[in-house]
Each structure stands twice: as C-alpha cells, then as structure tokens.
Amino acid sequence: MFYWLTEFADQIQLFNVFRYITFRTGGATMTALLCVFMFGPALIKALRIKQGRGQPIRDDGPVSHIVGKQGTPTMGGLMILMGVTVATLLWANLSNAYVWVVLIVTLSYGAIGLYDDYLKVTTRSSKGFPGRIRITLEAAVAAVAVYIIVKLGTEPFSTSLTFPFFKNFILDLGPVFILLGCFIIVGAGNAVNLTDGLDGLAIVPVMIAAATFGLITYLTGNKVFADYLQIHFVIGAGELAIICGALVGAGLGFLWFNAPPATIFMGDTGSLALGGSLGAIAVAIKHELVLAIVGGLFVLETVSVIVQVASFKLTGKRVFKMAPLHHHFEQKGWKEPTIVIRFWIISIVLAMIGLATLKLR
After folding, report:
1. Domain annotation covers residue 170
2. The whole model's pTM is what?
C-alpha cells in the first residue's frame, strides 16, 4: 500500500523512500512486531477462555510436558499470520505476483493448521487432522503455487534446479519441477511442524532462516548484485524480502509470549504456515537446495522421525529414545533450555553456511 505513494514522488520527494526494498523491509519488520505486541495479549486471553484445558499433550511424551505444559493454549500462529499479513499488505508492492503467491501459500497452510488445531482442542486428542487428507490439501496448494511461479519465470530456467557452489550448473527438470516444488513446500511446512515441540525451539530457527532468505531474495532480485555474486537473477523476486522481514518481526513478537515458560503455543496454525512460506520463497528465488542447508535443523528433525519409524517397522527397534530429535535429548536428561539454545546455535551456523554459498561459486 505504501509503495503506491511513489506515484506522488515527483510532488513530494520524501515519498521516494518507499521505492527502496530495504526501507520497506525494515518497515514490515517493525509493523509485524508491533501488531503482535498490540493484539497478542488479547488473543491469548481469548484463546485461553475458549480452549479451557489448552492444547492436548501427547500421552507418550516426556513427563515434564504432561505436568508443566498442560493447559497452555494453542493456535498462537494466528498472531504471527496477522502480523505478517498486515505488514505485507502495507509495505509490499502489491502488483508483484510473487508476493501474492507466497502470501496465499502462507495463509492457506495456516488455515489447514488452524483446522488441525481446532480438531485437537475440541476432541481432546493429539492426532487432529487425518494425515493423508492434510498432506493432500497441502500438496494441492503447493502445486498451484509452483505452477504460477513457473509461469512467472522464463523457461527453461523457471523449471530448472540450481545448485549451490556451482554458478553455471542447472538441471532442467521440465514438468517434473512442479513435483519437486510441491515436495519442497510441503516438506518445509511439515518439517517446521515437527520441530515445534519445545518453548521457543521452532520460532527462532524460522526467524534465522527468514532473515537469511531476506538477504538472499534481495540480492537475487537485484541484477547488479546478482551479476556480481554470479547468482541467478530472478526479476521481481527482491520484493519477497518484505515478507521475510514480516516473518522476522512477527516471530520476534511471538517469541515474547512463547519464551519459556510459554503462555501460548503456535500450534500447527503457525508452524505449517511458517514452513510453507519459507518453502515457497525458496522455490520462487531458485534456492531450493540452499533452504535445505539454512533449514538444516528442520531437515534433521524430520529425518530423525523417518529413521525412527522405518527402524521400528523393519527391525522392531528404535534408533532414538524418542522422536523428533529434541525429545531424544530430553529423554537423555538434557534440560529444555539447553536443547533449545543449542539448536539455535546450530541454526545460526547453518545460516552462515547457506550465506557462504552466495560467494563460493
């Protein structure tokens, strides 16, 4: 919305500032943060009254969760979605199709997660939405998004997979790229969902990944910087830095309430939306594999679940004391703050490695 003020820049020179993505990204970050701070307490109060006993806790989960986290309301992702949506609509160039694609994926995944949280709360079960139906809905949203992203680009580059550390090596996948893009978006959404198991564990790595991709999107969408770094230039992709900034701001606001001991959980409403947003951004800017590096913590958590299930079905034995991985360390006696902070450190290191791919080509 504010971007439209640039049309009057000839009359009011001050409005020229809205042309700069960096300025609008900062504005989106602060707007999202203030939205969560202003409306978060009222939302938490309403959810606590509405949900009563709060989010159901897994019966097979750590004892500390059953005792200490019982009664905490869920669906806190609503405040994140509110902050991101308001900030994006105010600060982004709304004529940019990439902005709408990523925003719609974010809100759609948030809606799927919201219904999942609703079922868990109303049925007092930790199972929620049937897995196959949920994945099918996620895949349908992702397929439409990837198809639009491909049409926005120039073939064959728009259907190609780029590789970090290699400036000229791209692999044209043709129509198969839509399947790959779906896998990345759906996988990212569910990977963040699996990581969201301890207070503050998921939101900080999401903010780190969003900040990292905010820089990457800005550079990818700027031809001068893209040519200098020898990365692939994507016209219009720089505007996605606004959404990345909004994710960081909303995440900071949510962390205020989610810091141990959490007064609210983001639930699937937040985790699916945040992961889906990161996945869609990665596909749009052709940095799909870099997301696997920057979001390596989410990948690790997901792999731990896959390994655990596969091992138990094939051999009847478990590789980890409990999956996802953070629960394994809880069962080993690590304190929750220790696990959370160490996982944050891992996320920072992985983000630095991801950023290094921009120059090491």
Report:
1. yes
2. 0.93
Residues 6+ apart with CB under 8 A from 168: none
Residue 361 lies in a domain: no
Query: CA distances (Å), 347 to each of 33, 175, 238, 335, 340, in order?
Result: 22, 33, 23, 19, 11
Q: Which two tokens stand for residue 232?
A: 């692939």
What pLDDT, in 10s, does the model give residues 187-244? 999 999 999 989 899 999 999 999 999 999 999 999 999 998 889 899 999 999 999 9
Whether the Cβ atoms of residue 249 and residue 29 lie closer than 8 Å to each other: yes
Pair of tokens at residue 200: 């503050």
When divided into structural domains, the chain yields a total of 1
- Amino acid 115 reads Y
Task: Report if residue 118 sits inside a domain.
Answer: yes
Element (H, E) at 170: strand 170-172
Question: Would you state the structure tokens that stand for residue 84, as one six-digit string?
Answer: 């991101």
The per-residue pLDDT for 254 is 97
Q: What does the alpha-carbon distance between residue 187 and residue 256 come to, in Å, rounded to a whole number?
A: 27
- Give the tens place of pLDDT for each residue, 335-346: 999 999 999 999
Residue 337 tokens read as: 């703050």
- Asked if residue 210 is part of any domain, the answer here is yes
Give the range of the structural domain holding residue 271, as residue numbers without chain letter: 2-356
Q: How far is CA 12 from the centre of its chain?
A: 37
Question: Counting every residue, how long is the chain?
Answer: 361
CA angle 295, 301, 306 (to 5 degrees): 125
Which residues, other chains included, contact 194 with Cβ-Cβ below 8 Å and sequence gap of 6+? 298, 301, 302, 305, 324
Integer Cα distance of 3 and 93 in angstroms: 6
Amino acid at 47: L
Whether 326 contacts 197, CB under 8 Å: yes
